[in-house]
Amino acid sequence: MRRLARSAAPPPSDRPRMPIDDPAPASRTDPRELLDAYLDHYRAEVLRKLDGLAEEELRSSRVASGWTPLELLVHLTWVERRWFEWGFAARPVPDPWGDRGPDGRWAVPESTGTAELKDAFRAACARSREIVAGVPLDRRAAVGGRFAAAADAPSLALILFHVLQEYARHAGHLDIARELADGVTGE
């Protein structure tokens, strides 16, 4: 992985900002609606934070751990598959932990384009939405996929909260990468 040189960041007041949409108006109180709205919000945030970055920035790291924005997108695509398809629905998913290179990092072949990776992410998100549509929050994950015993199977509420916190954390990581790349900050 090639690390890019840091650019001098403009003062905070001069930095371009990404406006964010409020996913939950004050009138929204249903826990399921809130979970679904915030999860979709962060899914969209991840893509929005990648938009506008040059291909070199998407495939290069600006952080000490070495991950790239596209590797993070691939990771989140596998998060969707692992938690909703394999985890909640117990559908067979080949290699549910994802394709990793010899160094243990998420594999992003040079021959795979950014648009293709974004499409795979969107498709995984759409499958996840279909799997959980109309399912009560207290329903437990099916046994036979990720979870071998009913006692180990978490509720849909727990899975949604877990995936939501993972997205929020990684959207913050992308905020840092984006700010280092071109000075654009999230709000």
From TrEMBL:
Check the UniProt entry and state the signal peptide residues, or none: none
Q: Which residues cross the membrane?
A: none
Pfam families attached here?
MST
SUPFAM superfamilies membership:
DinB/YfiT-like putative metalloenzymes
Q: Which residues lie within the region annotated Disordered?
A: 1-30
> What is the protein name for this chain?
DinB family protein
**Species of the source:** Streptomyces synnematoformans
- Taxonomically, what lineage is the organism? Bacteria, Bacillati, Actinomycetota, Actinomycetes, Kitasatosporales
